[in-house]
Amino acid sequence: MNSDLQGRILTIKLLIYEHQYQIVNIYAPAGTDKRVQNEIFFDNLYPYINSTLPVIIGDYNCVENPNLDKYPPRSLTLNQILFST
């Protein structure tokens, strides 16, 4: 197992039926105001990935649906209410 100092990158190697895999869990900086931090984060991600193994990457802080995936849920804007039909 390997991780960065901030706990935003966690990697583990698995051996399944004599095949090795690497799982990489990331928690990237989120939000439109963090664009520079996000770019730096992804630039620094590559040393944690073993390019000789199949890699599975999961970003577990992505938000697919703000009304379902955020707490408290984001309220609908007037435009979403008026134009959702």
What can be said about the biggest beta sheet?
4 strands, mixed
| Distance between the ends | 49 Å
What general outline do the C-alpha atoms trace?
A: globular
In angstroms, what is the radius of gyration? 18 Å
Amount of beta strand: 25-35%
The figure for the number of domains is 1
Kindly summarize this structure in a few lines.
The chain is 22% helix and 27% strand.
How would you describe this protein?
The protein has one domain (2-83). The protein contains three helices and four strands, in the order E-E-E-H-E-H-H. The chain has helices at residues 35-43, 66-69, 78-83; strands at residues 2-3, 9-16, 19-26, 55-59. A four-stranded mixed sheet has the order 1-2-3-4, with no helix packed on it.
Structure characteristics:
alpha+beta, four-stranded mixed sheet, 4 strands
List the helices and strands and how they pair.
Layout: E1 2-3, E2 9-16, E3 19-26, H1 35-43, E4 55-59, H2 66-69, H3 78-83
Parallel strand pairs: 3-4
Antiparallel strand pairs: 1-2, 2-3
